[in-house]
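Input sequence (193 aa), recorded before submission:
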Amino acid sequence: DTGNNPNDKIEFITVGRLDAWRGFDLVIESFAHVAKDNKNIHLTIVGKGADKARLKELAKQLDVKGQVTFAGKVSMDEYYRLLATSDVVVNASLKEGAVTVSFDSMAMGKPLICLDTTGYTRYFSNEYAVVIPRTRREEVIANLATAMERMTNADERKTIGEKARNAGAQFTWEARGEEFKELLMKNMKLLEK
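Predicted structure, token format:
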């Protein structure tokens, strides 16, 4: 975990297909706001897609090209390595998307910043994730930037990351299996009556 040492880089990561509805432009614009005052942050964008050229141009226009890496499509091993070495996961998908990376971030104890899609995000609490309401574009960008700025604090990342890891335990397949088993047993007992 990166400390509060001003020389430490803080790594943000966002993952998914580079489509316009995935909100990568929102992430870059928000990141640029924070990067104005903090050159020790970095953003890695993992994925490929039709929006890549526009996103690269946006990073250039906002003068953060040197702080943003477009990793492209990567193997699962590389995906897990990048996630493990990141400090914060950002998912600005405007509709249900990047669900896997959001749950993987919890399993790895990484703070998550995401937009409220009212789908999978209903499982997330602001105790261990920053769930941003989908409002006007400018407001979403400002809220994403505020959340990113908040995550530049090592203590904040550590606290939220630990809570995320603890909460993530309930989302494993084993935990889901136990839930289904309990439900099945309860229904079997009702049928026996």
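Checked by second reader. The chain has seven helices and six strands.
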